């Protein structure tokens, strides 16, 4: 989107999966919400939820016909991330190509993330 700063980008595969989740939901939903929480052997885990009621504090990323809401507490950890979706022999699910990730556990369920300097985020928002 021109003139709007997006915390993360969404691949075509991720957009298609989000679209199918929204369409198949047994209740009306607006999109999905992405966040991070403390947990796992590497320290942090990505968290995904369906969005029924929009939290106005969330950062909204609208791309490829879908909506992804980003928890404001996660913005500094997710800045510059590419959200994807993969189907493979060993794993099916959303992926996060995150430049703020410094390591991951062996099972791939948790990561170590370093937050972006808040001044960089403010500079990006100001340039839009």
Report a brief summary of the structure.
The chain is α/β, with parallel strands linked by helices.
Can you describe what's shown?
The chain has 128 residues and is of the alpha/beta class. The protein has one domain: HesB-like domain (Hypothetical Protein Aq_1857, Chain: A, Sandwich). 20% of the residues lie in helices and 38% in strands. The strands form three sheets. It has a four-stranded mixed sheet with strand order 3-2-5-4. Strands 1-6-7 form a three-stranded mixed sheet. β4 and β5 form a beta hairpin. The radius of gyration is 15 Å and the shape is globular.
Question: Which CATH class is shown?
Answer: Mainly Beta
Helix content: 10-25%
Mean pLDDT across residues: 85
Shape estimate: globular
Annotated CATH homologous superfamily:
HesB-like domain
What is the correct CATH architecture? Answer: Sandwich
Largest sheet: 4 strands, mixed
Oligomeric grouping of the chains: single chain
Number of strands: 9
Head-to-tail CA distance between termini: 11 Å
- Strand/helix succession: EHEEEEHEEEEH
Q: Label the structural class.
A: alpha/beta
The name of the CATH topology is Hypothetical Protein Aq_1857, Chain: A
- Number of separate structural domains: 1
């Amino acid at each position: 989107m021109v003139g709007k700063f997006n915390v993360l980008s969404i691949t075509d595969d991720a957009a298609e999966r989000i679209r199918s989740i929204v369409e198949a939901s047994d209740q009306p939903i607006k999109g999905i919400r992405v966040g991070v929480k403390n947990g796992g052997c590497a320290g942090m885990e990505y968290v995904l939820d369906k969005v029924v009621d929009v939290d106005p504090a969330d950062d909204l990323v609208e791309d490829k016909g879908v909506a992804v809401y980003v928890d404001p507490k996660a913005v500094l950890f997710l800045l510059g991330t590419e959200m994807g979706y993969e189907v493979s022999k060993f794993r099916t699910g959303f992926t996060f190509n995150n430049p703020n990730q410094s390591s991951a556990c062996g099972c791939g369920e948790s990561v170590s993330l370093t937050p972006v300097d808040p001044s960089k985020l403010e500079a990006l928002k100001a340039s839009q």
